[in-house]
Amino acid sequence: MDNSKGITLSVLLVSMFFLITACADSAPSEELAKETLSYEARGCPGCFEIVKYKKTNGIKNGITYQEYFACMIEFKKDCYVFKDYSSPSQTFSELKHLIDKDSFRNPDHGVLINSGDRYVMSGIIYFVKTEKGWMPSKRSPELEKVFQYK
Question: For the stretch 22-37, what's the b/e string if a residue is b when 16 or more beta carbons lie within 10 angstroms of its beta carbon?
Fold first, then answer.
């Protein structure tokens, strides 16, 4: 009996080791990805809510991770976004360009986005692995496609 208890304990310990190492090497959470997108719009806090989010792919390279995503956002208040002259087919290309309507000083250089408008967007969020887990990289998320949802 003592030999079978030792084998059982060994199997249990090895299983726990693999479970812990698998969890430690996992991808960033969906919640962290959503928080990263929301934080990028700090010029207009609370201006939108992510109503749908889907990770479409991910690439881990050492201590970095690129998460490819698609999501739908709904604006909760009116805001402006600087016109993106480099990408005229998109309303905006960076969330950091969103500014609260009352704070925007030059409406001629912006596009008004109304409360209730929905946009579908896809892009890449960059993360770095630290001692405390995944953290957003200092590199801003890249929005590849942004389209108003009608």
Answer: eeeeeebeeebbbebb
